[in-house]
Write a structure and sequence with these properties.
single chain, 127 residues, mainly alpha, two-stranded antiparallel ribbon, 4 helices, 2 strands, elongated
């Protein structure tokens, strides 16, 4: 119970693991049902704060992830930041299609096949 007094005095910036641990502690206390109404509400509010912080940290981590969109002429991976959260599903599908088309054009076709041979994404293909 001494931890509750320090929760409000702690810095608002915690690591994901720390915020998740504190959120789990709040959930445990609320599930035990031994708290009075005012204390339970205060713990709930604190839990919402930790939950929001966890979501924010996860969103930041997700933005840092890069997608490999192909390889350059030297065989090195070409990466693009993963920041398509504001796009619709249709726009995301169009971007994937453009990336696939660009990587096919940059890579020489093996065995002299035309670009569309063996490609399931062309009209009349499997999908």
């Amino acid at each position: 119970m001494g931890q509750k007094a320090t929760d409000s005095n702690d810095s608002d910036v915690l690591s994901f693991e720390e915020a998740l641990g504190r959120l789990e502690g709040v959930v445990r206390e609320l599930e035990e049902g031994d708290l009075g109404l005012n204390e339970a509400l205060a713990q709930y509010e604190q839990g919402v704060k930790w939950l929001r912080q966890c979501y924010d940290l996860l969103a930041k981590a997700e933005r840092r992830i890069e997608l490999v969109s192909g390889v350059d002429a030297e065989g090195k991976p070409v990466t693009t930041p993963m920041d398509d959260s504001a796009l619709s599903l249709e726009q995301k599908a169009q971007q994937r299609s453009r990336r696939r088309s660009a990587s096919r054009r940059s890579a020489p076709s093996a065995g002299g096949e035309s670009e569309s041979e063996g490609d399931v994404d062309v009209p009349g293909g499997l999908f």
